[in-house]
Write a structure and sequence with these properties.
Strand order of the largest sheet: 3-2-1-4-5-10-11
Bound molecules: 6-O-phosphono-beta-D-fructofuranose
Distance between the termini: 67 Å
CATH architecture of the largest domain: 3-Layer(aba) Sandwich
Helix content: 40-55%
């Protein structure tokens, strides 16, 4: 036993069980990923472990693209969006023979465990590696907040701040000309960003994939809103409500024909994924990054770290991946009530 570390059992466990941990970011980037990387490196060093960066997600495992991390390498990145490790979608990682090559590379590099930061595709990759003998722990990071087992994912808070700021700006010009604006937000198949962005941005209408919508009804609500004296109408639409093109343009075209008021369309797009992470995202990223290192150092793997209220919990990959995260429909009803 290293006498310098007497009394700190986690250090001893970490040294006994694992010496080198790889960290990667995969799939769509989200603000706060860098804060999570920084936390893994700093916590790893504190536990006497070596943290290695894997560039470009699982692709880096496949081609053996690794980088050593020192404490100073993660200096000044807590406030940066994107990911210093870069990210990629690697569909070839679904093939077992490709993963076998990747595992060989990891062994050659002496990487004994992996912390994977990303969304559901990242989780699937981490689950497969774990089953095939490389211990992994996953940190949920996606602006979509569509992962079962965690209240929040890294990046969604920053994204919502961007959405709300955009709606605020749009409302001023909408009011000036008494226009209706259709604002399309991301989220893939989830309506979370639209629901929370619309609620917090005070939108008049929110269209999400989880709730059937009727454009005739939306048109009549808008018409009645103007009749009641509203100066603007903001309709927030989730990209996932329409699969054959832009959701906002689809809705916009219909409403233009129906209501006779001026309609404009804004698709917020990738600006929702960019920018500096909020204090909240930096906070959870720091906590989850450090906890992931602790987990691996204590021989706990095959789990995602989730936030349940303020607490961090571990959830088995199979439980996360076999369940859908449900939206809180009470919030949808509240948004409807408050939009009158
Ligand atoms: O999953 C995050 C996300 O931003 C989704 O909201 C969106 O549908 C998708 O990624 C966009 O992917 P890409 O950046 O590959 O166009």
């Amino acid at each position: 036993m290293d006498t310098a570390n007497q009394g700190d059992t986690s250090v001893d466990k970490g040294r006994d069980y694992m010496k080198k941990i790889g960290v990667l970011t995969s799939g769509g980037d989200s603000p706060g990923m860098n804060a999570a990387i920084r936390a893994t490196v700093r916590k790893g060093k504190a536990l006497g472990l070596n943290i290695v960066g894997i560039n470009s997600g699982y692709k880096g495992c496949l081609v053996g693209d690794f980088r050593n991390f020192d404490l100073k390498d993660v200096s000044g990145i807590i406030e940066e969006g994107g990911t210093i490790l870069r990210s990629k979608r690697a569909p070839e990682f679904k093939k077992k023979e490709e993963r076998t090559k990747a595992i060989r590379n990891l062994h050659r590099e002496g990487i004994e465990g992996i912390i994977a930061i990303g969304g559901d595709g990242t989780l699937r990759g981490a689950k497969a590696l774990n089953q095939e003998g490389v211990p992994t722990v996953c940190i949920p990071a996606t602006i979509d907040n569509d992962i079962y087992g965690t209240d929040m994912t890294i990046g969604v808070d920053t994204c919502l701040n961007t959405v709300v700021e955009s709606i605020d700006r749009i409302r001023t010009t909408a009011s000036a000309l008494e226009r209706t604006f259709i604002v399309e937000v991301m989220g893939r198949d989830s309506g979370y960003i639209a629901l929370m962005g619309g609620l917090s941005g005070g939108a008049e209408e929110i269209l999400i994939p989880e709730v059937e919508y009727d454009l005739e009804e939306v048109a009549s609500d808008i018409y009645n809103g103007y009749k009641r004296g509203k100066q603007h109408m903001i309709v927030v639409v989730a990209e996932g409500i329409y699969k054959e093109g832009s959701a906002a343009h689809h809705v916009g075209k219909h409403l233009k024909e129906q209501i006779g008021f001026e309609v404009r369309v804004t698709v917020l797009g990738h600006m929702q994924r960019g920018g500096n992470p909020s204090a909240y995202d930096r906070g959870i990223a720091s906590r989850l990054g450090a906890e992931a290192v602790t987990c691996l150092s204590e021989a706990k793997s095959g789990v995602m770290l989730g936030l349940n209220g303020h607490n961090i919990e571990t959830i088995d990959y199979s439980e996360v991946l076999s369940n859908n995260k449900e939206l809180d429909m009470g919030l949808y009803e509240l948004a409807q009530t408050l939009s009158q």
